[in-house]
Write a structure and sequence with these properties.
Blueprint lengths: L3 H14 L4 H8 L3 H8 L7 H10 L4 H5 L2 H11 L10 H7 L5 H8 L8 H7 L13 H11 L2 H7 L5 H14 L2 H7 L5 H14 L2 H7 L5 H14 L2 H7 L5 H14 L2 H7 L4 H48 L4 H35 L2 H24 L2
């Protein structure tokens, strides 16, 4: 992405090619000579209101000034009140934020495809309007955005919350099943606190939540829980944790499964699967974590788009009451229709992910696999008997 030095150098070169002095350029833009000087020295950059006019005066395009076609595409979309066609990377948002109005950055943040790193959040915070709540502290903003379900904005100010309050919000997020907030609030958990959530997830039979906190448990404790899952007949949890069993524990469980006629457990513990089971369990856990993370991102985007839709709906009603032109109302309707389509698409993706997560944790699916293995063994036995 571009930076102030690159932009400044481009402005200087383009200005000189047109034979324009810094003072003349400043006069034509209606700004101070010092502002132009600061641009060209890489101390500051023109904001969005100056950038378009600057391109006209220098008889060029914004992407030539910025030296970055992607940045120009983002800014052009913002000017038109649209979401960029491709989701933004955090570094792209950080780069364009200083050029945009705070309210524009609030909306653009909703298009960022993953959470900003702490240093990135610190960089862009001065360029955000936070929904116009200028009089609130960061901690108050965090509380407000948590209640609104606005994950993107919450991420920008969450560090202002004290540890005790973060723990309380984490408990609420766990109770509500809001994995987006759960993932964000677990970073500062001590190992013993994470272990508590893992124990609760196991007790509640929640594989998705257990996958997020499983690494907080010791191997010995995971083996104990695997044995408990075996005793309870919980194939889903057992398949997640069985990789932590010792060879002797696995042998014991296999013998028990055979005696009890438990095809699903026996299939997991078959000799020819012993070496695979740990890897399969790890892959299953990894996939579940991937699904949970993708769900978090989609839920975050859904919340952001919902906020934007509500804002546009209010704006539409305001303009309608003021007898605004049909063009303005049509433009808003078109954008709202686009948002509805995006929200529908996200809902569909979330449903697909839920189905996949359920399938990964579905004991009956594993049982059906065990039945197929058992049926194949019977068929082979009958075929063998025909030749005896």
């Amino acid at each position: 992405m571009f930076n102030a030095e690159t932009v400044g150098r481009n402005i200087s070169v383009l200005r000189k090619k047109r034979g324009i002095t810094q003072m003349e350029l400043a006069n034509r833009l209606g700004i101070s000579f010092q502002a132009v000087s600061n641009w060209e020295r890489g101390i500051a950059m023109p904001d969005i209101s100056n950038l378009k006019l600057l391109a006209q005066v220098l008889e060029t395009t914004t992407d030539t000034i910025l030296g970055d076609e992607r940045a120009a595409e983002i800014i052009s979309a913002v000017e038109e009140g649209k979401t960029p066609p491709e989701p933004l990377k955090p570094d792209e948002f950080v780069a364009v934020a200083p050029l945009l109005e705070p309210e524009q950055n609030d909306r653009l943040l909703e298009a960022v495809d993953e959470p900003l790193q702490p240093e990135q959040a610190s960089q862009v915070k001065p360029n955000l309007a936070f929904g116009g709540e200028y009089d609130k502290t960061d901690a108050e903003l965090a509380e407000m955005f948590f209640e609104r379900g606005n994950v993107a904005m919450f991420a920008m100010v969450q560090d202002a919350l004290p540890a005790g309050r973060r723990r309380e919000l984490l408990e609420r997020a766990v109770a509500d099943g809001n994995m987006a907030f759960v993932a964000m609030l677990t970073d500062e958990l001590a190992s013993d606190e994470g272990a508590d959530f893992a124990e609760k997830a196991f007790a509640d039979g929640n594989p998705a939540l257990l996958a997020m906190f499983e690494d907080k448990l010791s191997r010995e404790r995971k083996a104990e829980l695997a044995l408990k899952a075996f005793e309870d007949g919980n194939v889903a949890l057992f398949s997640m944790l069985s990789g932590n069993l010792s060879p002797e524990q696995r042998r014991m469980c296999r013998v028990r499964a055979a005696e009890d006629g438990n095809v699903a457990m026996f299939a997991l513990l078959s000799d020819h699967k012993c070496e695979q089971t740990g890897r399969q369990s790890a892959r299953s856990i990894e996939r579940k974590r991937d699904i949970v993370e993708k769900k978090r991102m989609l839920q975050e985007k859904f919340a952001q788009l919902s906020d934007e839709y509500a804002r546009l709906e209010q704006e539409y009603r305001r303009l309608e009451s003021e007898d605004a032109s049909e063009d303005k109302l049509d433009a808003l309707e078109e954008r709202m229709d686009d948002l509805e389509d995006e929200l529908d698409d996200i809902e569909g993706e979330l449903e697909d992910l839920d189905d996949e997560l359920e399938e990964l944790a579905d004991p009956e699916a594993i049982s059906r696999l065990g039945d197929r293995i058992s049926g194949l063994k019977d068929l082979l036995g009958r075929i063998g008997a025909m030749f005896n």
